[in-house]
Amino acid sequence: MATLYEGYTLCGVGPVQNSSNIGILGVEQGRDIDYVLVTDSSRSITVYKVSDQKPTGSWSVKQGQIISCPAVFNTQSQEYVVVTDDRVVRVWKEDDVNLEKAFKATVSADVLRVLSATDSEPVVLFCCGAVRFLDSLLASPQQPIEDVLTEDEIIRWSTIVKAEHQLVVLFSTEQRGEHCLYVQRFNPNTLVKHRIETEPGLSAPISFSATCRGSNIHLLYLYLNGSVYESVLPFRSSSTGAEGVQALSCSLCLSLPLGEEKLMSGAAVVLDEAHVAVIGFPHPSAGACKDYLCIWNTHFQTLQASKEMAGRIYSQLWCYSGKLYVPHGKMLSVIPFDCQKSSLAAAMGKLKQTSRIFFVVCFFLVHCIVIMIFFNRFFLLFLQNVKSALTVDQLVEHIKTSAVEDVQAEVGEFIRRAPQADLQLAAGRVALELVSRSQTDANFYPQCAFLQLLETRYLCYSVCPELLSLAMVKKDFHLCQIAFQIFSDIPEAVTCACLKAILSTPDLEMETVNLDTDSVIFMKELTQAHSRSDEEGGQLNGFCPPALESDVSDTPSNKLQRDPLSLDMSCPVGLHKGALLNEVLQTAYSDRSLLPHLKDLTVPQVIVFLQYLRFLYFKYSHDAHKQIRALRTPSISQIIDWVCLLLDAHFTVLAVAPEAKRLVFDLHKFVRSQVKLYAELGKIEGSLQVLKNSKQSEDFGMYAIQVIELF
């Protein structure tokens, strides 16, 4: 058995540069299993922490330079390696900011790939077929590189496998319709050439995948006709390569079903000894023009799991640490998977039973069959009077033509009746069809159906990217709010678009929107709550807040001696708008990606948003929010982070805009007072450390007096 779990978006896919370049050059393993290194075809290399779906580092080459191959991570030296402009090898560390200032060396021949394996030195593979270890190459960059391949022989695929602390480099070539596999072993250094032999009439393999199991290398290659072949090579070989080209025998291990449309590309990756992931080939029971990621059992020729992929499929697939990385549409998705031990019972979707249970089940089934035959007529009559549940294909067809009320009823019925495993796969397909018709038919908008699909928790932004955009066009802020609560992969551009739509909607119009009750109650109680500082005469935890500090030097007049934040602490927006802004504050984002989109906000929108953040911070700093019970509330750190981002994005405008002067001055004074507070705390840090480190005398009785000198 195998399972594909709910996926999520790791990053966007850049625009296609040309017909052979699809936006992502490669995805490589990072410094540990939770990090990957994504190289795009434009000019950038980015490290992502997969569990957080956030970039931790990014580097770019200059305009006019080209990244020639995917960057890799050298686990031995804890450095990154990439090749630019075919011959320039660049090496840098995590804390290096500018790639141009990092180490670089120009070699004497064109480099095809840098191949890296865990706890091993990277290997450089040249376009001519020669290989060098990275350190030996950088020690003498201009060393001559021998030609292993003939002039018209081209490398189509390459990889590196490791077992028993030994490395083996594999690469396939094509020359006038003939396909060969080269196996480069080290210690001893041997290169063996194999001729790939398959059935007559087959075109070139479109995808390769290699793994090492035991003492053998298992190589799988996929053809456009759906055939998946396997060849087995010994990890250690006595051959020296002097014997000439050797035949590489293979066996057919899987035949994929083909649809009516002509296939142009595809990809396959070995998951374990019995399972292979395939993309670009049709689902055996799905409709046309649908792209699926499938896991097949090669032992029993059965489909074990599948997941529909929205958008264009690029026929690229990577697998690291139980996760599949799939570029599709405008995103790179991460899809966790799990494969159980292969058995015939598991492959057929049945649990393994003992012989005793088997006979009991058989006995029971025989009696059931007798009963069913006896009551067959009554059973058929019953079925005729009971409305059968729609299949997902039937539901999709009904969505295209039925009225809104009928569609919403049918979607609700489908969600209630469909098994969870089927619903997980079908939810995205149904949502896409609903969105598609809503975009073309102005009178069709099934809000209840969208909300029901969201409540299944089987939707995410990457499954139905147009849903949020449609909700904003329809000004369905209730749907936006639920989506913000459920979706964890909303792109920063969409987050800012929703923020702009919320800020641009008048408060009176927003108050008519039906929102989550808990969020509105939180806003209502927050605006009415009295802070503890008011009840304690302006003091909180024994500290007089900066609002009451006297600082004549920085105030335009003595009238401004009072707390700038207490001058007008009424909420600057309505309750419903505040509830929606709170959802935006809790959305996951990357500073680097969010900042450019924040610049699209107008000055009035920025000022209102900053005023609301100031209101929240004042309430939070006086613990007003702790008096309110609510399921979802922004944290004080999230509030501060958004204030910093807004100031970074609009610093120049806010500095010169007259209407922002009062707000910026208030924020400045409050921050300065906080700095003073921390400075005072820093003065007694040494004394507190003495108290912490002081050792009490052990020879004292019931009572003792100890004198401690504080400096």
Report on the structure:
This protein has 711 residues and is α+β, with helices and mostly antiparallel strands. It is built from 21 helices and 29 strands. Helix 13 packs across helix 15. The longest helix is centred in the last third of the chain and has 23 residues, at 661-683. It starts with a strand and ends in an 18-residue tail after the last helix. Residues 17-21, 349-361, 377-387 and 531-567 have low confidence and may be disordered.
How many DSSP-defined strands? 29
What structural category do the secondary elements indicate? Answer: alpha+beta
Low-confidence stretches: 17-21, 349-361, 377-387, 531-567
Q: Quick one: biggest sheet?
A: 5 strands, antiparallel
* Outline type: globular
Radius of gyration from CA coordinates: 32 Å
User: Which percent range fits the helix content?
Assistant: 25-40%
* Percent strand: 15-25%
Number of helices: 21
- Mean pLDDT metric: 82
Distance from first to last alpha carbon: 69 Å
Pfam family, one: NOL11_N
Domain Nucleolar protein 11 N-terminal: 1-337
Subcellular location: Nucleus, Nucleolus
Transmembrane segments: 357-383
Summarize the structure.
This protein is α+β, with helices and mostly antiparallel strands.
Descriptive key words:
21 helices, five-stranded antiparallel beta sheet, 24% strand, 711 residues, five-stranded mixed beta sheet, globular, alpha+beta, 29 strands
Mind sketching the topology for me?
Layout: E1 2-4, E2 8-12, E3 24-29, E4 35-40, E5 44-49, E6 54-60, E7 72-74, E8 79-84, E9 88-92, E10 103-106, E11 111-115, E12 123-126, E13 131-133, H1 134-139, E14 154-163, E15 166-175, E16 178-185, E17 190-196, E18 207-213, E19 216-222, E20 227-234, E21 246-248, E22 251-255, E23 267-270, E24 275-279, E25 292-297, E26 302-308, E27 318-320, E28 323-328, E29 331-339, H2 344-347, H3 355-374, H4 376-385, H5 392-401, H6 404-417, H7 420-440, H8 447-455, H9 466-473, H10 477-486, H11 492-504, H12 507-510, H13 517-528, H14 532-535, H15 575-585, H16 591-598, H17 603-621, H18 636-649, H19 651-656, H20 661-683, H21 685-693
Parallel strand pairs: 17-21
Antiparallel strand pairs: 1-29, 2-29, 3-4, 4-5, 5-6, 7-8, 8-9, 9-10, 11-12, 12-13, 14-15, 15-16, 16-17, 18-19, 19-20, 20-22, 23-24, 24-25, 25-26, 27-28, 28-29
Helix pairs in contact: 5-6, 5-7, 6-8, 8-10, 11-15, 11-16, 13-15, 16-18, 17-18
